[in-house]
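Incident log entry.

Two folding requests arrived from the same account within the same minute. Monitoring flagged them as a possible duplicate submission, but the sequences differ. Recording both here for audit purposes.

Request one:
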Amino acid sequence: MIMATIDQFWKFLKTVRKKSFTELILCLFLLVLIPAYYFVDVFHILPCMYRLPSGSIWYLIHVLPLTFMVFNLLTNFVAVMYADSSVIGRLLTVSEYTSKDSIYCTICQCNVPLRCWHCDICNVCILTRDHHCTFSTTCVGHYNRRYFLWFLLYLSAASFYEIILIGYYTYCKVTIKFSDFMVLVPFQSIITGFHLTVGQIFVVLLTLNLIAVTMSSLLLIYYLDKVRKGLVCHEKQESSYDFGLMRNLETVFGEKWYITWISPFIKSKLPYNGIDWQSHVDQYKTK
């Protein structure tokens, strides 16, 4: 068990080293920004809004759900990178279905199962490949799609919460001038010089959250609609893999799909292996 985990960790490190500089910067940006927001909330904004110890109850009312969201945000994000959906090290079983419908990948040197596509960025075939996520530096596929969707959900929720919290704190405690909005124009800031004020800092914090909540919410709606229809991004209106709403949820989130939102550490076995899809389709249709 421990050796398998170590092997997975080294495989993860090897894949990270192959990523582009831009992807790594964006990934580190998220990994630094999320805890930074949390520490600003917990150690500055909330103590200022609710004087301790008299305001301890209200402080905890905010801190506990905030901690839960940040925990799931970070752990699901890391799980997206760590859970490998590639064909590397997997026994691609050959059946009457896979041998008939699969194609050969000259790069990976293997027969590619249904719903498996080669990623030019990761340079490997991904089982049930949905898309390549730039921020996580990896492809979202059969074994990490669950974590990606929960990451988007918690990013939407946390960003919305931050907009309300920081917005209210800014309204009560911070004076923002019109000139503070010039910080959003990098070219102008370079000309006039960087003289960050408190107002400019909170303008940036609010702007980043507005961008995050907009992008994550739209992406979440889009990808959940795909899940509902039993599709991945490469598939348009294919109905062969639509097993009904409940079964489609199990296909992505596993048998315990209804509690996987609590933590990525909850084990939820997937009903399919991501390789022999056609036999699963036939098995479903005969029920």
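Request two (distinct sequence, not a duplicate):
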Amino acid sequence: MYRLCVCAVLLVNLSIISAYRPVVIMHGILTGADSMLLVVDEIQRHHPGTVVYNADRFEGWSSLENAWHQVLELNSDLQDICQKHPDGVILLGYSQGGLIARAVLQTYPDHCVKKFISLSSPQAGQFGTDFLHLIFPALVAKTAYQLFYTYVGQHTSVGNYWNDPHHQDLFEQFSIFLPYINNDLPSTNSTLFRDSMLQLDQLILIGGPDDGVITPWESSHFGYYNGTDDVIPCKQRKIYLEDRIGLRTLDKSGRLKLITVPGVKHFEWHLNTDVVDEVILPHLD
């Protein structure tokens, strides 16, 4: 039986209840469902009757568990939700939760997700000392690969998406998660990972230059560093040009939306009422 905190407002007027799709929310690293309650409250305040599933799995330190383990457990939860809502849901993931949530829908061939909203998530990976010091105070970006690109390091979620632009050979050799869900490396699931993304009605990627944690911040838009630490925008990278997970197809069909919001720190995206109302709510239906 899946463990989800189900937050729902039940109204007598069924027409109101059916007006908005259910929303499934995945929290960020080292936090839990409680950290997303402002988002839940704003959704239900502006969209009365919306059913919100606020995931309470992998809270606190358990959010550092291997990414694939998290994906498989949450995939089971999403299947249960889709059985209840075959007409579709909206999936929203914040920070690490946005990356995990994206992998969940990619591993679910018949998912019911209509829109996926990635809120300041390291979709192309992470490479930054400031981020590391939130979790591993003794590590620095320059040498973190020595831990993360090992058997032990790959038991952590951070290690699974640590993308060192100066050690791409080791990234591809040791990383068991990010290079596969981004189809940088082929696998038996490559077609599934792409086709599941293409089932979306809309992919909404939100990030901003003042984030301060996601490094580079353009990773939230699938942009990333090259070997000389220059940031290559999403639409100039192979993941887009070669349409590895369907980004180009989604874009050409008007289903990809990149949103840049300046002046927002990483820990404000989900805790600032104005940000939630202006950036997230317009994409819920």
